[in-house]
Amino acid sequence: MAEQAVQRTDGQPPQPAGDRSRDGAASRDQDDFTGNYHVYEPYQVGLPPLRPYLRELWRRRQFALQLSKTKLRAKHYDTAFGQLWMVLTPLLMACVYFLLVMVIRGGSRGIDFFAHLTAALFAFQMFSSSVQEGANSIVRGGKLILNTAFPRVLLPLSAVVGAFRRFLPTIPLYVIIHAAVGVPVGWEMLLTIPLVVLILMTAAGVSSLVAAAQVYFRDLSSFLPHVLRIWLYTTPILYTADQATERGLGPLMWINPMAPIIRSWSSVIDNQELPDPAVIAAACGWAGFLFVVGILFFMSRERELVVRL
Amino acid sequence: MSSASEAGNGYSVEDGYSIVVDNVSVTYRTSVEGKPTLRSTIRRLGRRERIVREVEALKNVNFRIKRGAVYGVVGANGAGKSTLMRTVTGILPPTDGRVEVKGRVSTLLALGVGFNKELTGKENVVLGGLAAGLTREEVVEKYEEIVDFAELHDFMDMPMRTYSSGMYGRLAFSVAVSLDPDVLVIDEALSVGDARFKKKSFEKMQQLCGENRTILLVTHGMGTVKKLCDRAVWLHRGEVVMKDRAKEVVKHYTRFLQVAEDDELTAEEL
């Protein structure tokens, strides 16, 4: 019914007399893709109609990009010192963890471990910071949600975009570390590009899930840093996946959705080796699953968000 | 217009209507708890308490608005006026029935203008425009007009937490009317700013009315309804009590309010 109606009015709708002055506006309406005919109907199985939803989502992609940019600017990341911090903070974090591992393991680790740690940590931080930002996106975006109709999933997605923007300056930083430590270079490292996509998909799914849950459980934000910290420790970052398997933690390397991704990440960056196909399959499987489940869960809660805020 | 009969009440936006609200009901579940937390949920589990309440905000509401008309919505607090606005703008889709809206919609709802206080006025205008579905070019194009109308040139690069409430409202009103809407939905927001800006916004409203735009106006000001609106609907506890010419609706609604007051008086006297 909705589809038919849309097609019907895409043609020239009969206009009342006296409307001639707005002919210009009418032709503009047909030029751009502004969806000027709206139908609001009850949700089917708790989900909004998918096609219009995705169309509106795509139309407003600039909003998600702008929002992430504005938020970075609000944190002064557009100033010279701000950008320095964007590089310094993850570097210091890597140093802290390196020191931690050195102390715990009695200094048995070489400098090439530092390269492994930084690469894996920067990738994981892209995930954890988008989850952290995304979790608050709905509760903080309250006013906009109450006042404007737009696909709400744009808010957690914009947090993912923001995390990606913060990840970008760490790439040259890592390249310097990689070169300084003297780790070889190989074409396998190109695999990092699809792996970044997998990380972003996982991040988008988990962020949406947590963002919707946060509306029902406002105290989730106080648990979240701890959950993410444990998640970091159970991902092969402060150690390698092989070490975990040796110590009988093998299953963890499959159960933790981030583990297969980071494991592949380390194997292409540290060793220039193609990851085990089973690990790649697990990484794709987890990323796809979390992306779809997270976003669908979010969309199923979307109508209620307005009345729960 | 054979296709029009497909819509339940026999009207569709093709017949020169801008808004068709067809048998719309809205129910939603909401929590009566101030700030829902995981901790309190777990605690409640043990006691088998339920704090989720079902709200029937609108019940089988029907009306349609001709293109270019100014339509008033009146009713006591809790009548469902705000829910109706949110349903018409797609913010809260209906549980039952169907809403059709033709044209670019701009909203100005009392529930909270969508500004983030930490961001500057300029950033908020850009984000608001993009969220409403404008392209970046359109936002840039409208920006000057918005600032001019709000008369806030010196404040646009300052965070909105530094704004007074009047300035806040002025910017909100300017954004809503400058987005070049075909349908403008306004909830209790006519009275923003000082007397001069009030006059200016009232004139702007009258100008918009004259431009064949459709306006849906929620207000408690009966004078405004009589002055601006052609027709009006009176809602009471989610149901339509009457819909007629604005003057008639105001007359009956005012009488109802007085009767209600008299009832209270007698109750107190007893």
Concise account of the structure shown:
The complex is a heterodimer of chains A (about 300) and B (about 270). Chain A is built from 15 helices and one strand; from the N terminus they run ααβααααααααααααα.
Percent helix of chain B, as a range, is: 25-40%
Determine Rg of chain A (CA atoms, Å). Answer: 23 Å
What is the distance, rounded to the nearest whole angstrom, between the alpha carbons of the first and last residues of chain A?
Answer: 32 Å
Q: Please compute the radius of gyration of chain B using only Cα atoms.
A: 21 Å
- Low-confidence parts of chain A lasting 5 or more residues at pLDDT below 50? 1-34
- Determine the strand fraction of chain A and express it as a percent band: under 5%
Let me know the number of strands of chain A: 1
Strand line-up in the sheet with most strands of chain B: 5-6-7-3-8-9
Distance between the termini of chain B: 59 Å
3D architecture notes:
The complex is a heterodimer of chains A (309) and B (270). The model of chain A is unreliable at 1-34 (pLDDT under 50). Chain A has 15 helices and 1 strand, in the order H-H-E-H-H-H-H-H-H-H-H-H-H-H-H-H. Chain A is an all-alpha fold. Chain A is globular, with a radius of gyration of 23 Å. Chain A has one domain. The longest helix of chain A has 32 residues, at 277-308. Chain B is α/β, with parallel strands linked by helices. Chain B has a single domain, classed as 3-Layer(aba) Sandwich (Rossmann fold), CATH 3.40.50.300. Chain B has 8 helices and 9 strands. Chain B has helices spanning 38-47, 81-88, 121-131, 136-150, 165-178, 195-209, 222-228, 246-269, and strands at 17-31, 52-66, 70-74, 96-102, 105-108, 183-187, 214-218, 231-236, 239-245. In chain B, the strands form 2 sheets. Chain B has a 6-stranded mixed beta sheet with strand order 5-6-7-3-8-9, with helices on both faces. A 3-stranded antiparallel beta sheet of chain B has the order 2-1-4, with helices on one face. In chain B, strand 8 (231-236) and strand 9 (239-245) form a beta hairpin. The interface between A and B is large, with 61 and 66 residues. Strand 1 (37-40) of chain A pairs antiparallel with strand 4 of chain B, so a sheet runs across the interface.
